[in-house]
Design goal:
Helix content is 25%, strand content 24%. It has 10 helices and 20 strands. Strand 15, helix 9 and strand 16 form a beta-alpha-beta unit. A 7-stranded mixed sheet has the order 9-8-7-10-11-14-13, with helices on both faces. It has a 5-stranded parallel sheet with strand order 18-16-15-19-20, with helices on one face. The longest helix is centred in the last third of the chain and has 23 residues.
């Protein structure tokens, strides 16, 4: 990709200041979430990237923004219903929204980033009409009931005057806001089109937990922003909304922040005391990344001494990023075992290791397993009880 196609962020997307400090460099960093046929894996899709810190408000954001067509092309395969985390995570979110609304049935529920409708369907008891927005429906027609409307566009492209004949009074979004180039601007637009008493409930990966648990494998091209409670509260104040509540789901994406706010309130220049946040400390973030790199190097030293076949387990979206930090193309693996039959026979761009079914491993007891889907370590360990491999290894120790 020509360098000029990259958008370089030189201002903070939360406070608008240009006091940005580049604290983590990721040269030739691979795209994630892309699966290709084994015999047509082609070259790696690598682009220079960096994590920036705003010394004014403490927000973390990426330096380079790739075109959406590159980030979410035809080979981008994330679907909520295929994720082992999604069922429990969506139930947690729906239960939280239910507690906040206390049995209220909303006139119109709007979900930004509805993906394959897993969450929208679970929200059905909470509303009369539903609208979902996601570009995966751009060239497809979902099978939905009459009270459900799906808009197949990126949220930045939606013509709200055309698509809304009633103002939504419940707006939800899970793990979508961090993908948007200008999240404050988009939240402001949604605030304008919402009803006067609309409730917003947004879930994002929590940057504090990412840094505290040394999970820098969760930094990748599609996640442009890394929010914590501190920076999210600043964003709510910036758009003129009113904070309601927040909760953490520690079992989703290494720790996710769910935050609720209402339309109403006013922008204020008054000094606000925000909670202390570790990911709003640039030295702490950088020191964590140094420890992360040391851990990855030490892990590969152990793997390279294995005197048996080594298999990967978990063909997750983030595997190319994990391999990048491990400093390997995973060629030392006999294959990557995955339970999703849709991924069998596929691989990642620039890699030659195949994704295979569990039955392909003929001698579990004399093999080692390296867990690659790092947000699925618990589930994979449970599955491996039946296979009883010689060794089970994971690059991280907080899961």
């Amino acid at each position: 990709m020509p360098v000029e196609m990259l958008i370089k962020k030189n201002k903070c997307s939360l406070c608008g200041q240009s006091n940005l400090q580049e604290i983590i460099e990721l040269p030739q960093f691979p795209l994630t979430g892309i699966f290709v046929k084994l015999d047509t894996s082609g070259p790696r899709l690598n682009y220079d990237q960096a994590l920036q810190f705003c010394s004014n408000c403490g927000h973390l954001q990426l330096k380079n923004v790739l075109p959406t067509a590159e980030l979410y092309g035809t080979n981008y395969r994330h679907r909520s219903t295929l994720s082992h985390l999604a069922p429990s995570a969506s139930s947690f979110f729906v239960d939280y929204v239910g507690r906040l609304t206390a049995g209220l049935v909303h006139d119109c529920v709007l979900e930004i980033g509805c993906n394959d409708l897993l969450l929208l369907k679970k929200l059905s008891p909470l509303g009369r009409r539903f609208i979902g927005v996601d570009p995966i429906w751009r060239d497809a027609t979902p099978d939905v009931s009459e009270n459900v409307k799906i808009v197949g566009e990126f949220v930045e492209e939606v013509n709200w005057v055309r698509e809304l004949d009633v103002k939504p009074d419940l707006i939800v979004s899970t793990h979508n806001l961090e993908h948007l180039n200008e999240p404050v601007e988009q939240l402001g637009i949604l605030l304008e089109v919402a009803s006067e008493n609309a409730l917003f409930v947004i879930e994002v990966p929590d940057a504090d937990l990412m840094v505290d648990n040394i999970r820098y494998d969760q930094v990748f091209h599609q996640h442009l922003h890394y929010f914590n409670l501190n920076t999210f509260l600043r964003m709510i104040q910036e758009i003129g909304a009113t904070y309601v509540d927040h909760v953490y789901n520690y079992r989703n994406w290494g720790g996710s922040l769910c935050i609720a706010f209402k339309k109403g309130g006013a922008k204020s220049n008054a000094k606000v005391q925000y909670p202390r946040s570790q990911s709003s400390d640039s030295e702490y973030v950088f020191d964590g990344f140094r420890k992360f790199n040391n851990r990855m190097s030490g892990f590969m030293e152990i793997v390279n001494k294995m005197k048996c076949d080594v298999w990967g387990y978990g063909a997750g979206q983030m595997v190319p990023a994990v391999a990048y930090h491990l400093g390997t193309n995973l060629s030392f693996l006999s294959g990557i075992v995955d339970d999703d039959s849709n991924r069998h026979g596929l691989t990642y761009p620039g890699m030659s290791v195949p994704i295979v079914p569990v039955e392909q491993v003929s001698d579990w007891k004399n093999s080692a397993v390296t867990i690659l889907a790092l947000d699925g370590v618990r589930a994979i360990v449970n599955r491996l009880h039946q296979q009883q491999p010689r060794f089970v290894l994971a690059p991280i120790n907080v899961f």
